[in-house]
Amino acid sequence: MDYLHAMRLRRPMKRAVAELFRRFDAVVSPTRASVAYPVTKNFEDAYPNVDGGPPLIAAGNLCGLPALCVPTGLGENKLPTSMAFMGPAYSERALVALGAHYQSKTGWHLERPPGV
Prior knowledge:
Elements: H1 2-23, E1 27-30, H2 43-46, H3 55-63, E2 67-74, E3 80-86, H4 92-105
Antiparallel strand pairs: 1-3, 2-3
Helix pairs in contact: 1-3
């Protein structure tokens, strides 16, 4: 039943997202609502009051849209942070070019958390 409900919601969501991408080539958002969680803990244990990430990512998944995540630095406890570029359907090539351009202007993809 949940699956059928999700599929019914998908059509209006896809129309709304298509309208968004008539105005923008890509949307940029944080990948998570926090820094990465320590490898020794579950996310829920490390950040009990934080959900997994922005709802934009879930909407993109439901609509079948491509996204690319790139590192943006090291945050709390020197754990990685990142952002996501999401684009319209079949925009993978443009997203990879956007991510490559971003990384050519920053050095975050060369940084490593302690112990890695």
